[in-house]
Write a structure and sequence with these properties.
It is a single chain. By secondary structure, this protein is mainly alpha-helical. It has one domain: Orthogonal Bundle (Transferase(Phosphotransferase), domain 1), CATH 1.10.510.10. Helices cover 34% and strands 6% of the residues. It has 5 helices and 2 strands; from the N terminus they run αααααββ. Strands 1-2 form a two-stranded antiparallel ribbon. Strand 1 and strand 2 form a beta hairpin. Helix 2 runs antiparallel to helix 4. The chain is globular.
Length: 165
């Protein structure tokens, strides 16, 4: 069985030839705040929405019901590679790999960076998520691509090394 996710709030632009639209489309809770303020839709707007989806999956909380406020509160306590466990869905009853959850929390937090140019590309997100499938003992996940090497720290802070160059 494969899970399918549809309409998790990807913002859409009304006129594909233009880069701005006054008619903002998207699902509340998933829409990039930068897109709301500028009416400029970019690929990084989808990255933001995907980060919200990751937090929704981790927490079991609905993005339309103050999920991001909860994420910001939890992020205040993330330190020394620990802290994202606080956001874990209670229905998991503690049955999860804390290192993987911290990794995913750090990745999701990079995706929802308020500054779009500091968000990772979807390509890097895919590479990073595939990396989580490999067992690790270190506190850093290393992703090597043809063009670049980047590391995801588990500190839960915005990591500028994930941004597009």
């Amino acid at each position: 069985m494969k899970a399918r996710v549809a309409d998790f709030g990807i913002s859409r632009q009304e006129k594909s030839a233009l880069h701005s639209s006054s008619d903002i489309k998207g699902t509340f809770g998933y829409v990039d705040p930068e897109y709301i303020s500028t009416s400029i839709f970019t690929k990084k707007s989808d990255v933001y929405s995907f980060g919200v989806l990751l937090f929704e999956l981790m927490s079991g909380k609905n993005a339309q019901k103050n999920l991001m406020e909860y994420v910001e509160f939890v992020a205040l306590g993330v330190e020394d590679n620990e802290g994202w466990e606080e956001i874990a869905d209670p229905r998991l009853e503690g049955k999860f790999d804390a290192q993987q959850l911290n990794f995913m929390g750090g990745l999701a937090y990079n995706c929802v960076n308020p500054v779009s140019r500091k968000r990772p590309s979807m390509r890097k997100i895919v590479l990073a998520l595939s990396e989580i499938l490999k067992p690790r003992n270190s506190e850093t996940y290393r992703v090597i691509t043809e063009e670049t090497t980047f590391e995801l720290d588990l500190q839960g802070t915005f990591d500028s090394s994930l941004t597009e160059r």
